[in-house]
Every structure is written in C-alpha cells, then in structure tokens.
C-alpha cells in the first residue's frame, strides 16, 4: 500500500488535483478509510485531455512492434507482482485474495493478447469491380479515447480497454470508479515502467464523474468512449456522445438466465451455478440472475445448491479460507436486502442465508431462494450480490420466452446433455454470450459483450481491437 500512487497521472507525471481536493478510499471489509486519492475536477480532466491530444499523433506513428512490446512488458510486470496487486484489489474492493489473484491473471492476459494483436492490424488492396479503380484500405487509430470503468473488476476492466487502445495506437484518459481507484493508479505506474510514452495514458480519479466527463464527451476532441458500467449511466453517456458524434463501446448491465433442463447433469449444473452466481460475490455483469429450473429437478437442484452455498465461508477477503468477501458498500448491500425482502414477501422460500450479519463491513450471506414469484423485483433488477433466485418451468418454448423477456441480453447459461437442444436453445437466446454446461464465459481471447440494453460492441478476442480502429479507403485509378 505504501508505494501505491494516490495522485492523478497526467502527461506521465503524478500530480495533485488543481484545487488540492482528495477523496477517501474505503475498505469494504471494515468500513475504515484505507487512504485518500486525488479528487479531480473538470480543470484536471481538461489537462489530461490536452496531454492525450498532444501525444496522439506521435503515438499513432510508433511501430506496432514497439506498442506490442510495451504491452508484453506490462503483462510480465503484472504477473510478477500478482500478490501485491491482489492485496491492493482486495483491500479496496473486498473480493477474496484467491479471486483477486485470478483477476490479476485475467487482467494481465488482455495485455498479452493485445500485444499479439498490435502487430496483426491488417488492411487491404483490391481492384474494384469496374476494373478501372483500385481500393487501398488502411486502418488507423480512432484518436484520443475516454475509458470509464466500474469497481467490480478494478484491474481487468482497465486492461480490457487499455490493451486494445495501446495496440491500436490511441491515446487515452482513464476514469476509474471512485470506490476502486488504487488498482488503476497501480496499473498506470506499471505501464510507465514498461515504457509507455508520457501522455498516452492519463488517469483521472474523481468523485464527480458527471462534471468531469460530460465536457470531454461534448467537447469534440475525445473521439471514442469505451464505457463499462450500469445501463442507466451508459444511456446517459450515449446521449452526451451524440453531440460530437463520439464513437462508443458500451459494456452494460446484465440479467443472465441460468436454465437447467430435466436432462441436465445436475453435478455440472450445480458446479456451474456456483461459478455463475458466486464469482465476485455475485457482483458481476455476467452473474446468473434468474435460475429457471425444470420442475422435475428443481427441488433436487435447490437442495444441492443450498448445501454448497451454505458451506461457503464469509469474511474479510484477506483472511485465509474465506470464500465470500463483503459487498462493495452499504448501498450495494441495502439493495440486495430489499430485493430479498421483496421476493420473500411474494412467497419465496429461503433455503439458506437471507439474513444480514451484525457488525462492521458490508457482508451478506450466500442465499438461495426457491419458488420465486416471476413478479419479484429481482427478476428485472441486477441483484449484484450472492443471491440465487430459483423459478420453475415446464417446457422449452416457455423457458426461452421467459429468459428473453428482459431488456438485457449479455449472457445466458444452458445446462442440458442433449446436443440438439443445447444448440437450439443457445441460438434462440437473445444474448451476446452463452455458457453451455459451464458457468464461466469470460476469456480475453473471446469477444465479450451483449445485445439489447446490455451494450454495443465487443471487448477482447480478434474483434476487440476493431473498436479502436477506423478504416481509411484510398481510391486509386488504374492507369
Ligand atoms: P456505474 O454505472 O454506477 O459506474 C460505472 C462507471 O461510470 C464508474 O466509473 C462511475 O464513476 C462512472 N459514472 C457514473 N456516473 C457517471 C456520469 N454521469 N458520467 C460519467 N461517468 C459516470 O456502475 P458500477 O456500479 O460501477 O458497476 C456496476 C455495473 O457495471 C453493473 O450494472 C454491471 O453489470 C456493469 N458491468 C458491466 C460489465 C460488462 O462488461 N458488460 C462488466 C462489469 C460491470
């Protein structure tokens, strides 16, 4: 902690906010203040924007190999410092150390992946159908980007955006979530150490996100917004981006269905449920939010899931043997409590959990609710906590209709041993990603993203870099 930067990172230098403002960073396991970081205002954001704009032209001209090797070095440094980064992440976000180590590896992998993509940016040359003209296609960086990240994956949401932006030759301003600024500041220090030129990445921590970001989006110098966060904020930012026609990538909320058919292998389904529900204490956009279980296996599935959930150890993420850390803050926990109370009022049975413990820290126990009424609020709200809500269904058409009956479409999970059914159901789900007999889809080499109100564009995979590139077409007559 002692070496973690707490200032803004602008033009390659660590600086205080212009007005000297700072904001506290809390430990969600104790409620205590860990440290204070700079709290930027619009003036600081303008300076960061200026640094990114100034650095853009030279950065776009650097050799792809140079950009690639910076990312590769940063990947290696992150892996070497896994323990240090994991502790930092756990202290500001709460997830157990083992999960934090997993996130460090996941986060680093985006840098390795995009270091490999940086040198594979292609173009094209073709004679057009009329035979009189040639088409020369090249790809260039979109320009200075604004990257806005949430608190739930403090390191990986940064690398998933910074990796392709660096690979493509874009400069950027990163605005992390106010709850978890330390991981992003540590990442900036690592990229500097890896040789990233000054001004390419600027990090602005702030408690005044709206005041800081809106002028940037409307100002016309930022050419790209890459946002990960809630759908409500994403919608606001899309509207703000319209004025200067800023290109946008949006990774927004989810409301994942988890469908267990009567022919599912229940061992796989329960294992999958534990991952899809409990990764990150349920604070994931990919978290299974609605468990649709075939009536004939619902009781057995509920019993087994409750047994596994009830055996998890809840406590501070730094403590050995802890499986479930605290939720991010009191507000986040109050929302989970309200959703559970609403479901119970409407007749849900609590198979395990459901009771907030006394004491400091934002802990909430792993909870399984059975017989959930479809009208319950948690059916159309991201729970963002360790609560599995089970509903029953009778046939395939019905469950597909109910799974799709939501404005979101990020991910769905399907458990069945039938190949035809697996493919048929997956293809009919209105989602960007499907976990087939697995509770985990995230992988840096795969295109991550959703449809409907879960977002626009994809991050990771071969297409991840496309979000940061524009085509330029040269018309060249054949002489
Ligand atoms: P949030 O929308 O409250 O905040 C996300 C980021 O936006 C933060 O940095 C926040 O400071 C910033 N922000 C808030 N208001 C803003 C404004 N007016 N202008 C500019 N920036 C603003 O979301 P959160 O609570 O931090 O994260 C949880 C949400 O993120 C969930 O909905 C989750 O599903 C979603 N999420 C999505 C993905 C994905 O890839 N689809 C991944 C992780 C999280």
Describe, in plain words, how this protein is organized in 3D.
The protein has 479 residues and is α/β, with parallel strands linked by helices. It has two domains: 268 residues, 3-Layer(aba) Sandwich (Aldehyde Dehydrogenase, Chain A, domain 1); 188 residues, Aldehyde Dehydrogenase, Chain A, domain 2, CATH 3.40.309. 38% of the residues lie in helices and 21% in strands. The protein is built from 13 helices and 22 strands. The strands form six sheets. It has a seven-stranded mixed sheet with strand order 14-15-16-13-12-18-19, with helices on both faces. It has a six-stranded mixed sheet with strand order 9-8-7-10-11-21, sandwiched between helices. The model has no long low-confidence stretch (mean pLDDT 97). The structure holds nicotinamide-adenine-dinucleotide. Nicotinamide-adenine-dinucleotide (NAD) binds next to helix 7 and helix 8.
Total domain units: 2
Strand proportion, as a percent range, falls in 15-25%
Q: What does the radius of gyration come to?
A: 23 Å
CATH topology of the largest domain: Aldehyde Dehydrogenase, Chain A, domain 1
Counting helices, strands and paired strands, the structural category is alpha/beta
- Under CATH at level 1, the class of the largest domain stands as Alpha Beta
General form? globular
Helix content: 25-40%
Strand order of the largest sheet: 14-15-16-13-12-18-19
Q: Which ligands appear in the coordinates?
A: nicotinamide-adenine-dinucleotide
Low-confidence stretches: none
What's the CATH architecture name of the largest domain? 3-Layer(aba) Sandwich
Spell out the CATH superfamily of the largest domain: Aldehyde Dehydrogenase, Chain A, domain 1
Average pLDDT reading: 97
Q: Sheet with the most strands?
A: 7 strands, mixed
GO molecular function, one term: glutarate-semialdehyde dehydrogenase (NADP+) activity
Domain Aldehyde dehydrogenase: 14-472
Organism: Streptomyces paradoxus
Active site: 251
């Amino acid at each position: 902690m002692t070496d973690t930067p707490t200032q803004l990172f602008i033009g390659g230098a660590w600086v205080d906010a212009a007005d000297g403002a700072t904001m506290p960073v809390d430990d969600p396991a104790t409620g205590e203040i860990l440290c204070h970081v700079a709290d930027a205002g619009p003036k600081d954001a303008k300076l960061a924007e200026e640094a990114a704009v100034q650095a853009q032209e030279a950065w776009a001209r650097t050799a792809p190999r140079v950009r690639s090797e910076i990312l590769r070095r940063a990947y290696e440094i992150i892996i070497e410092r896994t323990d240090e980064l994991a502790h930092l992440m756990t202290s500001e976000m709460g997830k157990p150390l083992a999960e934090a180590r997993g996130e460090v590896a996941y986060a680093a992998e985006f840098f390795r992946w995009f270091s490999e993509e940086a040198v594979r940016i292609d173009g094209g040359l073709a004679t057009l159908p009329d035979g009189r003209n040639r088409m020369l296609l090249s790809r260039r960086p979109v320009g200075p980007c604004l990257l806005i990240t949430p608190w739930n994956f403090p390191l990986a949401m940064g690398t998933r955006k910074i990796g392709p932006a660096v690979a493509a030759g874009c400069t950027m301003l990163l605005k992390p979530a106010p709850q978890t600024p330390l991981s992003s500041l540590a990442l900036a220090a690592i990229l500097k150490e890896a040789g990233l030129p000054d001004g390419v990445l600027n990090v602005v921590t702030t408690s005044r996100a709206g005041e800081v970001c809106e002028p940037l989006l409307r100002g016309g110098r930022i050419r790209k917004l890459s946002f990960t966060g809630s759908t409500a904020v994403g919608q606001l930012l899309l509207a703000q981006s319209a004025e200067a026609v800023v290109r946008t990538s949006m990774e927004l909320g989810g409301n994942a269905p988890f469908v267990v058919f009567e022919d599912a292998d229940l061992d796989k389904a329960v294992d999958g449920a534990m991952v899809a529900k409990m990764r990150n204490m349920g604070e994931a956009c990919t978290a299974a939010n609605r468990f649709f279980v075939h009536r004939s296996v619902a009781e057995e599935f509920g019993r087994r899931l409750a047994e596994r959930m009830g055996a998890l150890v809840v406590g501070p993420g730094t403590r050995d043997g802890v499986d479930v850390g605290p939720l991010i803050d009191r507000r986040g926990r109050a929302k989970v409590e309200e959703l559970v109370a609403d479901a119970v009022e409407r007749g849900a049975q609590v198979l395990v959990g459901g009771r907030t413990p006394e004491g400091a820290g934002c802990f909430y126990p792993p909870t399984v609710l059975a017989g959930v009424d479809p009208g319950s609020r948690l059916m159309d709200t991201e729970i963002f906590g360790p609560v599995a809500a089970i509903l029953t269904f009778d046939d395939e058409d019905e469950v597909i209709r109910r799974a799709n009956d939501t404005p979101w479409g990020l991910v769905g999970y399907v458990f069945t041993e039938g190949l035809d059914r697996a493919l048929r159901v997956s293809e009919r789900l209105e989602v960007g990603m499907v976990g087939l007999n697995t509770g985990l889809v995230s992988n840096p080499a795969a295109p991550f993203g959703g449809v409907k109100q879960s977002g626009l564009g994809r991050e990771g995979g071969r297409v991840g870099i496309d979000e940061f590139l524009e085509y330029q077409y040269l018309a060249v007559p054949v002489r």
